[in-house]
Amino acid sequence: MTRLGIIAVGAAALSAVGAAAFALRPHRDRSSSDAAKPEAGNSEAGKPAATAKKAAVSTLYCEFTNFADQTPRVGFYFTIEQDGQKPVYAQIFQREQDGTQDDVGSAPRPAWSYDDTQSSPVIHSPDDAMQINLYDYDPKKTGSSWFEAGLRSVRYRNLGGKCRHSTA
Question: Is the peptide bond before 108 cis (omega within 30 degrees of 0)?
Fold first, then answer.
């Protein structure tokens, strides 16, 4: 009987972890992918729209957990715009542990600023209430990779976590 109880508890724990991972996964809804696409009449660098290359859209997804519990407490999803000297991280959504999600909607999206003058790069929220420390992060690296990150804010306190930088 105890063996059966252990199996039941293990199955319930795996189900809870799977449900949390499913609820906090980044998704690409129609509105965020449409916002990243150029309009039909636009051109790049003076080229007609028919011959213009599509720019790869980079994204950054970060999720942060409590230290004792590995269930993600909060997640952020950004598109990375490389228009200026430093990248701008346009926030797509913020997802809470209870499954609620704040979708930002269409442009203009909150622009988090990138600061690489410190030992580890940091992105700051527009109101400077939150910052995400990005450890071993290279924004020019192509592909998809996970790396360590930390969230610093009054609301969430100091949370550890990880981010995934993806390039389409």
Answer: yes
How far, in Å, CA of 92 to CA of 79, rounded? 7
pLDDT confidence of 74, banded at 50, 70, 90? Answer: very high
- Rounded percentage of the chain residues whose pLDDT exceeds 70: 66
Across the chain, where does the E strand assignment appear?
58-65, 72-81, 88-96, 101-103, 111-115, 122-124, 130-134, 144-153, 157-167
Question: What is this structure's pTM?
Answer: 0.65
Closest CA to 74 of 86, 66, 83: 66
Alpha carbon 74 to its chain centroid, in Å, reads 10
The H-assigned helical ranges of 24-149 are 30-36
Q: State how far the Cα of 77 lies from the Cα of 152, in Å rounded to an integer.
A: 16
Place of tokens 């007609």: 48
Q: Is the pLDDT reported for residue 31 higher than 90?
A: no
